[in-house]
Structures are given as structure tokens and as C-alpha cells.
Design a protein that fits this description.
2 copies of one chain form a homodimer. The first copy, chain A, is mainly α. Helices cover 62% and strands 5% of the residues of chain A. Chain A has 28 helices and 9 strands. A 3-stranded mixed sheet of chain A has the order 4-5-6. In chain A, strand 5 and strand 6 form a beta hairpin. The two termini of chain A are 51 Å apart. The N terminus of chain A is likely disordered. Chains A and B meet through helix 9, strand 1, helix 10, helix 20 and helix 21 of A and helix 9, strand 1, helix 10, helix 20 and helix 21 of B. Chains A, B: GO terms for molecular function: voltage-gated chloride channel activity. Chains A, B: Pfam families: Voltage_CLC (PF00654). Chains A, B: Keywords: CBS domain, Chloride, Chloride channel, Ion channel, Ion transport, Membrane, Repeat, Transmembrane, Transmembrane helix, Transport.
């Protein structure tokens, strides 16, 4: 039951399976120590285990079990995290409720709780692994493009990010940050760890590379975060870089389904839900969800979201640059990160205190409640004016949006005006946090405002043809959420994410239309996306974002960056030469040229081959040349110095080459490994 | 409002836009003839048009208008086709109804109508363009992988395929063939035509290649066929080959949304539907669509579909080979295609005649009615036993499945047993036809049978926890349809297609689970997919399907296939040599080597450069060498003879290179263009 389209690997699948079985067997057999008790029982169990193992590996290759494990573990992590955060949020609400009547104590409770949590998150993550701060997505994109970033996939980072993220999210809607980005980073760290296990079990003959595992992990991250497998896969396709290998398509889907199935089953077992359902299930009317003319209004909403996303992205880049360049703040950030976090969190909490500004922006609602309330299909403005209905209805979430004496339009307007700047400020916090969910909610509020406005203008609904249908502001909120999130991240997967989160596909066409339009506006004039902006400001060696920001870089040739090869052997090299090269260089592979004068590249030899050559010649005391004893491995692919950096990057990342030789008219000119590529990209970044 | 991630092109977008504007302007200006009347009015209109054009091209590049046009035109074509087919089918039904009472006449009407239509389809398509027969998808995949197949994208083929497909589909469920495959082919032909227009308008500086337009057209084909944009895009990702360029992602979505929006709006305007809705809208209960334990049964259904798909694929390959190898049939097929089609159609119609075998397989239902009835959420077996309910209910589609005196299980069982062989037979018909929809319906019947069986076993439903929920056989039918179609085509996009067709995403997890499992079973042991099978039997030069069928081919090196370069110039070549090379070869680009002895590759010169060189030397009578006058363009990428065919194919298709030089130790050894690549793949195919 192997599921594969292995068009790129050379090893046949059957061979590899067999190899996997054998290597696993060896591990098991070597565990049998002769001196231990119950030998017969133990050998029976060993036999059983071996049979199970053989049966499992004959069903599918080891990598498929790794994908399944990745999905299940990530979902478990996501679920436990959600549970912990929910408990911490409830504790805060309970404490705040207990202090009813004493405004000062309530203020302290409201502000100090998130302040402490943010301080904890910052200090914890920075003391264990400073790389765990931020979303992590720009770094993951860089790693996926082929560049090695040390420490970003370590287990200590996983631990720091997990605890830090729980603290951040427990601070609730006050700091207004999300889960998706860091969660994709978490699942990548888990994927990298599982890959190390897989590589150990398979030895040299593994058929999957780490890059493939990380692409799968990106899909799993999104899928396990919301139980949304399809948008997870689309996300991994979009985020991957310039080319997506179809070989990763089935593994992505498989792992994403494992993850989201586990996530949803866990919520069934915990009695949160009756069956496997969407996370933010909506109840939009399915018979006549909207009238055809409304598509034009949805398109306008897309345009609006695109325009506001430009404002947001500009402010975001500005504040990131300000924090880095302002002397006072950058000094505080360098030495007192915790203090900075605490101060900003306190500021944010003070503004959103329910007895002051928070009264107008529904600040008592948690992130989940914000989405649920905004996607509600009832028309708030109509209900709030209809006093009988409002009084009869039990206390529901939308009433937070309509405090006594204030219209829904007022609160939604305040939310949109205030939250944008609060969010921009929150983005500077140096702690593990995601920025997708806040943007999604903000977009939902934008859409909701438009929807409520339309419902106010057309209280009886819109008619086209025979039937009349009332306006559903929840639909507008959903479309706005997808369009705004899509515009900010320059992706289309939020459209699918919106569909999968709500479990209804009535609005598929409006959502896609609005997301495309908002994307078109946001991408115009080479404006960088949210992640591109972070990549550029953090100076990450991510070529695609550099080229999107400055398209003229795509024509720069590798000529000026190529580093000459350090150690080169010639065809007729003797023992002394080889000895010298081995001592002077730590590389594992050495290029062989015709002669040191002609410098025509013939191929490569490995360090092991050279060592064997030295050994055999020391013992025999014969003076053979390199060519006689070592088989020179020919170089399959050569670039000329006229190739552009972009072409070199594309070839190396698509073909997953670790090293490419650069020749000019047959002569060896230099070599590009990922280390050199990283330097090249960093040099290019300076030219912007 | 440019929507782009142009990571691969070198030209900046803004430059190109400007170029587009200028070239368009020139065309308009040149239309002004001085001798014609109403000069002022005409020049005003011209000015207006120019301003509109400039405004449009400043909004987005010309290619985006091409994508939109592609989507809209394909959707229009799809809608008109559906309308014509519906009318022709209704005419047949009306005639058949009029002859009620006279079985002989009814038999003649039932059999001769599809026989004539199939004969018409065959003779029409073969007389205009023989390449229009069949699905066309295997050929499109081959073209997308880079190989040029003449006549497959011509306008005459478009015309032949369109008329042929309408005739085939008007024969109805008797011949049991579908629309998707040929429709993707149709949209590709339209895409190729629009690309030619685009290339003419842009001149040399177009930034999109034909390959990109065809990828977009593949997405549009599926999207316009059902109004399902997301599965269209996923289909184009899967079908493309080994690597999907993210640059095509936004265009694919944009065109697919244009197509499906147009398709759905057209059905609103024609008053088929009230608003933009799914084509086969279901009404599954959304509160508790299924109990968690049912996921195991869905997984079993996936396994069942996978197993039966293997039987189907084996029979399909067998019959295709039989038709090609059997002397009698192959002679008939070579000379009397129309006769063969008519005979097979008559045979199929005789078996499905409602007064004989058709009575047990609901043969009176059309393809659309078959899907709608199978996806119905009521439990047929329960209703058919409950006489009062059955009599009270108006005549509905499910009653066709439960003829008086026979149980639903009997008819579903007969359908599954008989239709498989009828479908295998219908696949040999040499006319334009798709094979996706029949497979989808067959899978739905499989799922329905399992669902009805479960509903019979658990009449009160399944309980887990507090609430009891009745079995929904429609859900099983949907899952079965996606799983079987996915297994037959070795793709996952049918899962999404099922969701988009029904407009409900309650069953997303079961559908994905079952499709993954059925795919896993169908892909085991390197069995070729439906399309791979056709590619192999038709000996199409499609490398991925060859390698999937025979993985050891992936390690074959290009060494044995490389063709030496015909005309080579040396650096110091004089006038005579250049003259000789120009006369002896028709190439546009010539490699330049150091000397004819060393053969070290230096770069290339174009035919135009050589002609200039000749001209200047003839007039001046000086004997300059090539090197002095022509700038030798260096070769950016070289392969060695040790690279595998697969690697060469991958590099050429990913980087969209038209020509790659093969060197060995710096010496020019040969050249690979797509022509040579095609020959290589054909040579490889002989080795299977």
C-alpha cells in the first residue's frame, strides 16, 4: 500500500522498503542480550515484534509512518495547548468576575494578568532559545528555500516556543495575537526531529530529504491548528518557494488528514463536540445564501480589504524599522526585552480595559468568541433596535458588540479604528506569537461593518427575480476575513481556510473573488507581503522575497559572487599532493581537473576515496597517480558564470543539489554550496 | 492591480506593461486611413479607445485579460454545450414516451438514437481531425511536460472535439461517458489560441510562456465544467508533471474563478438556479452528519473502492490492448471506425433497454439524474418497504432504483456488476468522450450500496454518546464516488471535486480519508493510473508515466541517446566556414568551440549574427574571424553525459529550457532539444 509518485528519486521504492525492513531488524536483533531472564518469552515477543514490523513495512515505507506520527503528534500538541489556554483564560475571567464592584482591583486584574504572561513568555523564550521569538514563518520559508539556519529547528527551540506561545495566547484578546505561524514553526521542529529519527533508522539509503519532511510539516501545522487539511496543503504549496514538487503532494495530504482527524476526534472525545465538525461552525441559510448582485458588493469588500491591508502593511514595516532604528527602544530591546514586553502589554491592556476604551471594542470577548460572534448570521442592528427580541434572547455574544446606548456601527467602527494600531504595536512584542488570526478577525470586523450597513440600508433584503432574501452580515464577515488575511499575507489559502473553519461552502465564490481582488491590490507596485517585510527587515537570506521587493536583482549574475575552489586535485596527482589537500581542507568532496594549468573540470572524488588511495600507496610504496586508483565521479551539471543568482538558486532548490560547480569555457571557476548561496543572497540584500 | 509573484521571469512587470501599451497603441494608430469619411469622429473614437486601453493595461498586464477571457469563454462553451445536450436528451425521452405501448418501436427508438449519435460523433471527429478522439487528457499531460505534439492544440481539433463531444453526451447514460477530460482538452485548445493572440500583441517581450497558459487552461477546464474552482486548481497542480511553478498559482485561481463564476451566473440567468450554487446540491443534515465510529466504515469503503478500481484498471488496459492486437477488430478500427462505434453503441443500448436489462439498472435516468439520485440522503430501502410513504411521495428519482418487486440492493448490485463491463467496453469507442464522470457515478453506486446495507442493518441509526443519528446513505455515495474516481485517476482532486459539486463540506474528513486509502491501494506495485495506462498503450512520449510504470528507467543516463551537434563553429572560423555552416543547417543557434580539435564549448551565436558577419565581410573584403565580430553568448547550463534522462527532462521542463548542451570534461558532446527528448522517451518506451 505504497502511495507514491516518485518521479524524482532514483531508488526504487521496493528496494528501499526492503532495506528499511532489514535495518530495522538488525536494530531489534541486536537488542537481545544473552544474560537476561525469561529468554524464551523474550525471544517470542521479539519474534512477534519483528513480524509486526515486517508486516507494517510491507504495507508502507517507514516515511509514511513518520508522516502519520507527525500529524498525530502535532494535533495532540495543538489540542493540549488549546486546553491549557482555555483554562488560563477562564481563570482570568473568573477572577475578573469576582472583583465586580471594585474598579481599581478589576483594572489591576485586567492589566497585570496579560502583563505577567507576556513578560513570562518573553523571558522564558529568550532565556532558553532567543530564536523562538516571533512568528517563525519567515525563517521556515528561508529554510524551505534551501538555506540552513542554525538553531531554528532544534528541540530546545520547540520547548521554548511551546511554553512561550501558551503564555502569549493565555493573555487573550488583550494583546490580540494568534497561533498559526508559531504552530507551523513548531510542527516543522517536530518534523525535523522525526526526520532525524527516520534518517537514523534508514541509514544512507533514505529516499526522502529533510526538505520534503518540512514541506509536509508546514501543511500539518495549519491542518492541526484548525482541523483544516485542504488549506494546510494549499498553504504548504504557496509558502514553499518557487516550485512545488508533486512528489510531496500525497504525503502533505496524508499527514494533514492524519493531523486534522486527530484534532477533531480529540474534541469529540473531550465532549466539546458531538462529532467531527468544523471549529467555527456557522449556520448560514443554505437555500439562498446571497443574491447574485451581492457578488459586486463582495468584490468591493475585497477592494476595501486590499486598501486597508496596504495601510496595515506599511505601518507594520514602519514600526519594525522604528523599533530597530530608534536608539532608546533598540537599547531597551537589546537588554531588557522582558521590560519592553511588559510595558507594551500593560499599555495594550489599559486601552482595552472594559470600563474605559474596551467598552466600545467588545474587549471582554476572547479570540474565539470574537470570530464566532462576527460570523453570526443574525442582523445585530435590527435585533438591538427591536427591544422585545433583545430582552427575550438569552445573553449572547453579540450583545457585547452592542453596549447599552451605543449602536453596533459605533462599536464596530471603534474596533476597526483602534485595533489596527494596537495590532501594529503588538507586532513589535519580542515573544512567540502568530499574526494570522488577528488579521483574520480584523477582516471579519471590516466585513461585518459593511454587512450591517447593508442590512440597515435594505432591512427587507435584496430581491432579484421572485424571491427576496435578507442580508446575512455573517457572510460579509467571512468574506472580509478571508480577503483581508489573504491580502496581508499575499496568499490565497486563507480563502479555503475560511471555508474549512466554518464548515460551510455556500460562500465559496464570493470568498475567492474578494480574496483575489484584495490580493491584486496588495501585490501591486511590488509591495512586500507581511512575511516578506519581516524577511527584509530581519535580513533573512530568502531570495524570493528579495526579488519580489526589488525585481531588478533577478538579472544579477553569479560572476561577481563565485568563490574559487580551495582544494583542487589534478588527474595525475601523486601521494604528496593528495596528502596536502586532505590536510589543508575539511571538505568531503574534491574537484579533479585535467592539469593545474588547463583547469578543465573532470569530476569529483570523495575524501574516503582519497584516504583509501593514501593507505594503499603507503603500504605498497608504489607511486601510482590518483587517476589509476580512484574512479573520478563525473559532474552531472555545470553552471557558467553568466547564470543569474536566481537561476542558480532555482536549480539548487528544485533539484535539491547541495553543490554546483561553476565553469567558464570548460575551466573550473568556482563552486556554489548553500553556504555560498547564503552569502550571495546576503550580499544581494545589501544592494537594495 | 497586477497580481504576480514573478520569481522566475527576468523582465520587470512594469517594463512589460509599458511595452504592451506601446505596441497596442501602434496597432491602433496604424488603422487610421486618411481617405475615409468622418475623420474627426473617428479620431475621437480612436482616442477614446486608446485611453480605455491604456487604463486597462495600467490596471493589469495583458495576460490577465487573456486569463479572464479564457475563463469566461470556456464557461460559455460549457454552458451552451450543457443546454444543447439537455435539449437532445429531452427529445429522446419525449420520443420514447410517445411510443409507450409498442415495445418494438420503443426498442428501435432506445437503441438507434444513441447509435446514430455515436456514429455521427465518430465520423465527424475523424473526418475533421482524427486527434480529437478519446479523452485528450493523456496528450495534454504530455504537452504540459514540454513535448510538442502537432495538431493537438489546433482550432480544427477544437471544432471537431466540441461537436463530437456534444453528440457523444447526447447519447445519454446508455453509452455512459462523461465530459471532464475532453473539456480540459477543449479549454487547452482555446488557451493555446488565446496565447497565440497574446504573443502577437506582445511581440518578443511576452512574459508568459505557452506552458503557463496551458496549466491555467487545465484548471479552467475543470472549473468551468462543474463551477468548481478549487478542485480545478488542484487538478492542474496534480496533472502538471513533476514540479508546479508557484508563479502559475494566482493565474490558475483567477481564471478558474472567472470560469466558474460565469458558469454559475449563466445558470442563474437561465433560471435554472436561484443563485450561485453548487451543481449537485445535497441536503445532508449538518448538525450530526455522521458518528465518529462511522469513519472506520468510510475507511473500509476506501479500501473497497481501491480494490475494485484495480479490477477496472486491469480490464481497461486489457481491452485497449485487445482492441489494438486483435486482427479483426484492429482492421475494423483502422478502416471502419464509424461502424465499430455504431455496433458498440447498439450493443450497449440493447443491454440497457428498459424492458430488458435496463429495468434492473435504472437505465432511464440520465447521467445528472444518476448522481442526484445516488446522493439523495433518504434511505431508499426503508421507504420502499414503507408502502404508505412510497405511495404518498410524488414520483421521484429513487423510485427508478426500486422497481416493483425488486429490492434496492438488487438494482444497485446489478448496476455495479453490469455497468463495470459496459463502461470498459464503452472506453474502446473511438470518439471524443470523458471517463471521469462514469467512474464517479460508479463509485457513488458502490458507496450507496454500502450505505443502504448499513441503514438496513442499523435501522435506528448508530449511537455514540447521547444522541442517536440515522445512517445517511447519500454520504456514503459521495465518499465512494470521490474514493473510486481518485483511485482510478491516481489523484486526490476528486475529493475536493465531490465537496464542490455538492456544496456541502460536512463529509470532508471521511472523503479525504477514503480517497487517500483508495489511492494508496491503487498505486501499490507500480500499477499505472487510468491516464498512465492510455499513455503507455498509445506510446505517448510522457516520461513520468513511463517511470511510474517502470522505475528502473529513472537511472538510465543520457549518454546513449545524445545526438552529436550537426553544425559547430570554431572561435577563429572565417567567412567560408560560416557560409558553409549557414547553408548546411537550418538551426537558429550554433555552438562555438575553441578549435575543432579541442572541442571546448565556448558559447553560442545566432543565425542573425552570422548573417551580419557575412555581410560586413563581403563588403569590406577583410578576412576577420568570427570571434572579432560576433559576441559569443555563453551557455548558462551544461549537462554531462552521466546525467539521467529524468534529470535532463526535469531541468528542461522546470527551467523551460528549449535547448541544453551536453559536455564531457569541457568538450562539447551533443545537444538536447525537445525533439531529441521526445526521441529519447520513445526509445525508453521500447525498453519496457
Amino acid at each position: 500500500m505504497t502511495m507514491q509518485h516518485d518521479y524524482v528519486t532514483c531508488t526504487s521504492f521496493a528496494e528501499n522498503e526492503q532495506h528499511g525492513v532489514q535495518s530495522q531488524e538488525k536494530i531489534l536483533i541486536s537488542n537481545g542480550h544473552p544474560g537476561k531472564p525469561w529468554q524464551p518469552a523474550r525471544s517470542k515477543i521479539r519474534g512477534c515484534l519483528r513480524r509486526v514490523q515486517t508486516a507494517m513495512l510491507s504495507l508502507a515505507g517507514l516515511e509514511w509512518y513518520c508522516y502519520a506520527a507527525l500529524g498525530v503528534l502535532t494535533a495532540l500538541m495543538s489540542f493540549c495547548m488549546d486546553l491549557t489556554i482555555a483554562k488560563l483564560l477562564r481563570a482570568h475571567q473568573w477572577l475578573y468576575g469576582c472583583l465586580e464592584g471594585n474598579i481599581l482591583l478589576q483594572f489591576l486584574c485586567w492589566t497585570l494578568y496579560p502583563t505577567c504572561l507576556c513578560a513570562l513568555s518573553t523571558s522564558f523564550s529568550h532565556s532558553i532559545c532567543p530564536q523562538s521569538a516571533g512568528s517563525g514563518l519567515p525563517e521556515i520559508r528561508t529554510i524551505l528555500s534551501g538555506v540552513h539556519l542554525p538553531d531554528y529547528l532544534s528541540l530546545s527551540n520547540l520547548f521554548a516556543k511551546l511554553i512561550g506561545l501558551i503564555s502569549t495566547l493565555s493573555a487573550g484578546s488583550t494583546v490580540f495575537l494568534g497561533k498559526v505561524g508559531p504552530f507551523v514553526h513548531l510542527s516543522n521542529m517536530l518534523g525535523a526531529y522525526l526526520y532525524r529519527l527516520y534518517a537514523t533508522a534508514c541509514g544512507d539509503k533514505q529516499i526522502r530529504s529533510q526538505g520534503e519532511m518540512l514541506v509536509v510539516a508546514s501543511a500539518v501545522g495549519v491542518a492541526s491548528c484548525f482541523g483544516a487539511p485542504i488549506s494546510g496543503v494549499l498553504f504548504s504549496i504557496e509558502v514553499m518557494g518557487s516550485h512545488y514538487s508533486i512528489r510531496d503532494y500525497c504525503p502533505c495530504f496524508f499527514a494533514a488528514v492524519c493531523g486534522s482527524l486527530t484534532y477533531r476526534l480529540l474534541s469529540v472525545f473531550s465532549r466539546e463536540q458531538e462529532t467531527v465538525q468544523a471549529v467555527f461552525k456557522t449556520r448560514f441559510p443554505s437555500e439562498l445564501p446571497y443574491q447574485p448582485p451581492e457578488i459586486l458588493i463582495f468584490a468591493f469588500l475585497g477592494l476595501l480589504c486590499g486598501a486597508i491591508s496596504c495601510v496595515y502593511l506599511y505601518s507594520h514595516r514602519w514600526i519594525l524599522r522604528f523599533v530597530r532604528t530608534n536608539k532608546f527602544i533598540s537599547r531597551v530591546m537589546a537588554t531588557e526585552k522582558t521590560l519592553y514586553s511588559a510595558t507594551v502589554a500593560f499599555l495594550l491592556a489599559s486601552v482595552t480595559f472594559p470600563h474605559t476604551g474596551g467598552f466600545f471594542i467588545a474587549s471582554q470577548l476572547s479570540m474565539k468568541q470574537l470570530i464566532t460572534s462576527l460570523l453570526d448570521s443574525t442582523r445585530w442592528n435590527l435585533i438591538s433596535h427591536n427591544v422585545t427580541v433583545a430582552q427575550e434572547a438569552p445573553h449572547s455574544l453579540w450583545q457585547e458588540w452592542s453596549p447599552p446606548g451605543y449602536s453596533v456601527f459605533y462599536t464596530l467602527g471603534c474596533f476597526i479604528l483602534i485595533k489596527l494600531w494596537l495590532l501594529v504595536l503588538a507586532c513589535t512584542l519580542p515573544l512567540p506569537a502568530g499574526y494570522f488570526m488577528p488579521v483574520f478577525i480584523y477582516g471579519a470586523a471590516l466585513g461585518r461593518l459593511l454587512g450591517e450597513g447593508l442590512a440597515y440600508l435594505f432591512p427587507d433584503g435584496i430581491s432579484s427575480g421572485e424571491r427576496l432574501s435578507v442580508i446575512n452580515p455573517g457572510g460579509y464577515a467571512l468574506v472580509g476575513a478571508a480577503a483581508f488575511a489573504g491580502a496581508v499575507t499575499h496568499t490565497l489559502s486563507p480563502a479555503l481556510c475560511a471555508l474549512e473553519l466554518t464548515g460551510q461552502s455556500t460562500h465559496v465564490i464570493p470568498i475567492l473573488t474578494a480574496t483575489l481582488i484584495s490580493n491584486a491590490l496588495a501585490r501591486s507596485r511590488h509591495q512586500p507581503s507581511f512575511y516578506d517585510g519581516i524577511s527584509l527587515i530581519k535580513r533573512l537570506p530568502h531570495l524570493p522575497s528579495l526579488i519580489r521587493a526589488c525585481p531588478k536583482l533577478s538579472s544579477i549574475q553569479i560572476r561577481q559572487f563565485v568563490v574559487p575552489v580551495g582544494a583542487v586535485l589534478q588527474r595525475a596527482e601523486g601521494v604528496t599532493g593528495v596528502q596536502h589537500v586532505l590536510n589543508s581542507s575539511k571538505e568531503n568532496e574534491f574537484p579533479v581537473v585535467d592539469t593545474h594549468d588547463s583547469f578543465t573540470l573532470l569530476g569529483t572524488v570523495t575524501r574516503a576515496q582519497l584516504q583509501t588511495f593514501l593507505l594503499s600507496n603507503q603500504s605498497q610504496d608504489l607511486c601510482k597517480s590518483l587517476e589509476d586508483e580512484c574512479s573520478i565521479q563525473p559532474v552531472k551539471l555545470q553552471l557558467s558564470t553568466d547564470a543569474t543568482v536566481k537561476q542558480a538558486h532555482c536549480i539548487m532548490s528544485v533539484l535539491r543539489e547541495q553543490c554546483v560547480f561553476v565553469t567558464e569555457m570548460g575551466k573550473l571557476h568556482g563552486v556554489i554550496t548553500w553556504k555560498e548561496m547564503k552569502n550571495m543572497i546576503e550580499d544581494l540584500a545589501k544592494e537594495i
